[in-house]
Amino acid sequence: MSHPPPPLLPFQIAAEGRGAPPCKPGFSEDTYKVVLPDTVEEGRPLFHVDFLDCGRGAPVRMECNNPSDFRIEADGVVYAARSLQRSPQHALVLLVKAIDGTTQQQWTTQVRMEPPALSSQQVPDASVPPAGNTDLMEISFPSRRNSQLKRMKRDWVIPPINVPENSRGPFPQELVRIRSDHDKSRALRYSVTGPGADQPPTGIFIIDPISGELSVNKPLDREHISNFHLRAHAVDLNGNQVENPIDIVINVIDMNDNRPEFTHQIWNGTVPEGSKPGTFVMTVTSVDKDDPKTANGMLRYKILSQTPESPTSNMFTINNKTGGIITVAAGLDREKVPQYTLIIQATDMEGNPMYGLSNTATAVIRITDVNDNPPEFTAEMFSGEVRENRVNVIVANLTVTDKDQPNTPAWNAVYKITGGDSTGRFSVPTDPTTNEGLVTVVKPIDYETSRTFVLTVEAKNEVPLARGIHYPHLSTATVSIRVMDENESPYFEPNPKLIKLEEGLMPESALTIFTAQDPDRFMRQKITYSKLSDPANWLRIDPNTGRITTIATLDRESSYVKNNLYNATFMGLDDGKPPASGTGTLQIYLLDINDNAPKVFPQEAEICEKPEPNAINITAVDGDLNPNAGPFAFELAHRPFDVRRNWTITRISGDHAQVGLKIGFLESGIYEIPIIITDSGNLPMSNTSYLRVKVCQCDINGDCTDQQHIMAAGLGTGAIIAILLCIIILLILVLLFVVWMKRRDKERQAKQLLIDPEDDVRDNILKYDEEGGGEEDQDYDLSQLQQPDTLEPDAIKPVGIRRLDERPLHPEPQYPMRSAAPHPGDIGDFINEGLKAADNDPTAPPYDSLLVFDYEGSGSTAGSLSSLNSSSSGGDQDYDYLNDWGPRFRKLADMYGGCDD
């Protein structure tokens, strides 16, 4: 359906293209040009665009991209939506869209609106012409003078060429024609250079070298490249430049082809509960890749929904330009609605719902807690009980409720005792888990003083309540506490108790009465007393009355007395259930009396035989205190008489004196000097002390050279004990050695003789286990060796003899074994048997050998044991084999085996 133009339009509208295909649905022209005055009134019709429907019959809806300034009706007439003040230097491009209401098919066209000033100068139109248009705008090179390549000042500036992005073609699409005035006289060639032509991205713009028609070869994307700067050239056929290059600017006109994008899909914000309307919450933002200077990139925000819709559906509002969210209604209550969820929409085209593109995001608004709910006790009265004298025990739990967020300062309760505890015996800390108040005893309570307590406790939060909210009556409670009686320990008063008296007090003397008191005034109880600590065992206490008497003499100089004080501890025990006890300390301050005689110190010293320059310095010691001690008087005793003759004593001070030799020389030795020392007591006490002095030879330094000076000084108790221990150890070692020797003799008696007596031609050296008598031989009567005639032959038992020189190579002869406990008369038989065995030993060397017997006595009546004179040595013995032993034994062979001479 065709819409005729309205009559008498005040402005001219001209089509730049006239070659549209016949009966093709769409606008009659792809581009329209309109001249508008500088000032346009609101509601005035401006121009008309014609839409061809080719008999489709379906209605179309007209829209424009700037609905805030222009309004288009269904018949294609465009009106001013408001009063406009146009710039006389710039043109405006308006996009008009036709939409099929049934198929949603769309057609677009553009209208170039120019001010009269630009139109009067006949500025070439830079709008995109339709394909095949022969009336292209021409851009001419400026004329030159004198054929020089000097750019001359132009009368006008070449306007930029505007090309809409995302054009559907067909391509290539002509833009402008470049021409030079010299093409009339000669053939020229045109070219363009720059990004988009011969530089990356190449191939976007091409030029016909003969006609000079500049075309675009593909759709443009403003978000990728918003403008192109090209340079046009004109040369002759020889390649000579005939014109100065001119600059051509191609602007890519923005289309609304990008939706707004939120920088975050979910936005989180907070606002305190109870906030007043207009309280800022947060700001949401989105971006649009389209040109922000046009309506395509101008965004508007709005709230689509609110969840939950309580207490109203419009608790928040949003600034449609900045995206700032603020509260718009009162009634935010975290205890009722802790969180709100908003769906936020951003729309371009300045929020036009018909033309603009939209996108959404989610805003989560959390309502933060404020202290708008005070703690309230669950009951007005609480009760508890506690035993007296107990501390750090919980007697009652106070429970409260608070609607604020748990475990926050607005929920945490703080308890304070406001009445009933003037002595500060209770405290109410808070249980951090349950928020309960724990009534705790912090000081001991005496049942005899207070039997009940009634406390007033107030509960508050850690932070103050919000403005305008007051604590209710239930924020205060009463706590009733009952005290239970317990059997308390008796106590001594005073404790410790100090008394003063002189030492030396005799046994069975009364000292004092030390009694305890029972704090349980409401119980009839009896207290018995006993002694806990009495280090010197001097005291006794009456179990019923507490009277303390002495059982021994009090001595201030005792090791149990420290700084004149003697401490004894006593216990008082009541008969309660269970019994309770208390302790008290009695301190006895002992006054000194003169009951100790002075003594000399040190008691041992050394001095040289020649006293000069040596002398002995002595000191008097007294267990008493002044004035019962020093100053002391020193003198030598009158007996023995040589003391005063040999020694002298000189007083140096009240406590010191010096002892020296009175004579020029005194022999070395140990001397005991009696010294009489008298103290200064009211009744003076004297004592004769002995100073043990060793007189010794001294070197040039005055030191004793006697090695026995340690013995002269005497042995102490420790040295004596050490000597005794050494003697005992030595005796034990001797005893063990004797036992070991007896066991060894028993083992030896079980062995056979190692010597074969049949082949021996000489006496051998025989050795018993121990020279001078073996261990078992010591049991014999050795006097029998002196008188062999008195031996009893029947009781003789041979004893084994062991060779020392060599071991026989052939079977050994059987030597007689000696009895373990022989008769003394066996010694003679034992010796004879040994002699016989030695004579018959063939392994013995041919010489007399020394025989070692168990006992070698002097003056024995026994005959010689030499094998040379033995009766058992027969003359028929053959000793010729000794000649084979070498020259040394030949003489022996002659002696034994030769003739009598």
From TrEMBL:
The keyword Disulfide bond does not apply. Pfam families: CADH_Y-type_LIR, Cadherin, Cadherin_pro. Residues 115-135, 770-791, 858-877 are annotated as: Disordered. Residues 771-780 have a biased composition (Acidic residues). SUPFAM superfamilies: Cadherin-like. Coiled coil: none annotated. InterPro entries: Cadherin, Cadherin-like_dom, Cadherin-like_sf, Cadherin_CS, Cadherin_pro_dom, Cadherin_Y-type_LIR, Catenin-bd_sf. It comes from the Eukaryota. It is found in: Cell junction, Adherens junction; Cell junction, Desmosome; Cell membrane, Sarcolemma; Cell membrane. GO terms for cellular component: adherens junction; apical part of cell; catenin complex; cell surface; cytoplasm; desmosome; intercalated disc; lamellipodium. One of its GO terms (biological process) is establishment of cell polarity. It is a single-pass type I membrane protein. The chain crosses the membrane at residues 710-741. Gene3D superfamilies: Cadherins, TCF3-CBD (Catenin binding domain). Residues 155-262, 263-377, 378-492, 493-600, 599-705 form the Cadherin domain. Residues 858-875 have a biased composition (Low complexity). Keywords: Calcium, Cell adhesion, Cell junction, Cell membrane, Cleavage on pair of basic residues, Glycoprotein, Membrane, Metal-binding, Repeat, Signal, Transmembrane, Transmembrane helix. The keyword Repeat applies. GO terms for molecular function: beta-catenin binding; cadherin binding; calcium ion binding. Its main location: other. Cadherins are calcium-dependent cell adhesion proteins. This is Cadherin 2. It comes from Takifugu rubripes (Japanese pufferfish). The gene is LOC101064737.
